């Protein structure tokens, strides 16, 4: 993109590193971000077979701290934060009163009444305002532009990262974290989380010191990856993208996130609407689609059944690892059963597609070693 357009965008602390690596820079949620380096397919395959690293410092981060932090989050989240032990995290929608998804979050209970909430870059202002409005007896601090975040993803992630980390990564379970350690000599919080469908870690560091971690990972053999590969990886893994696959008009039941909704014995914003929808049923469901041939189902493409428009594609791409044209989309519940035959309108014609069980790709866990 043009230099004048780039100047108006926020830059992560790793921006100059991306420029030196000759990344293709694009705008994303107001940030100048790397779309790709060597190429989307090559980067995708590097994560599936080895280890890739992503600059995701644009993600929104909030610290929720104080004597009523847990109670506040319990009133706000669909998932139940009371289940979290220290150093444990969870994935959860944040809903409005109608049960619509304001954002999807990762919430880490670092210790006691201290929580780290990670949201989407595009929803930073919405999340911050919602959290502050509903917080009682606790502090909400936006740490987005003080906290850098590097995702280390792939079957070799633990093996590559371990020599740089003081903590034992083998003892860190999925969706758990090490609140205080050092990575390449830099103070860091390390969580075993990610958005690729692979094993991996996310490394939170002070903003100004992220470059040391990034360069150490490159030197160790990690492949730099951009937003393009991040999108194809998450799609193969059946992970949703906020703003495409869900929004404020979508509920967790519709989006296939019912497993995150804990209704019993709790009162939280959106609970009544979600309880009612569970009893009455939904009018649409998110499904996976395998499209015949190599045609790509783009977001917004109509989903057809016997020539009638019955739904819409929300995400679609060629799956570089599964070697199929894959998509996510919404259809009526009567057409959501795996094996259902539909068509997707691509360039004016109906291309055959089949509803399939998600995810499109599921990793095979490696044998445990000292590195996890």
The number of distinct helices, counting runs of at least 4 residues, comes to 9
The first-level CATH class of the largest domain is given as: Alpha Beta
The CATH fourth-level homologous superfamily of the largest domain: Probable tRNA modification gtpase trme, domain 1
**Strand order in the sheet with the most strands:** 11-12-13-10-4-14
List the helices and strands and how they pair.
Elements: H1 3-7, E1 10-11, H2 15-20, E2 24-28, E3 31-36, H3 40-49, E4 52-55, E5 60-65, H4 69-76, E6 88-95, E7 101-111, E8 114-119, H5 124-134, E9 139-142, E10 147-153, H6 157-161, E11 177-183, E12 186-191, E13 200-206, H7 210-220, E14 223-225, H8 227-236, H9 271-280, E15 285-291, E16 302-305, E17 308-319, E18 324-331, E19 341-346, E20 349-356
Parallel strand pairs: 1-3, 4-14
Antiparallel strand pairs: 2-3, 4-10, 5-8, 5-9, 6-7, 7-8, 10-13, 11-12, 12-13, 15-18, 15-20, 16-17, 16-19, 17-18, 19-20
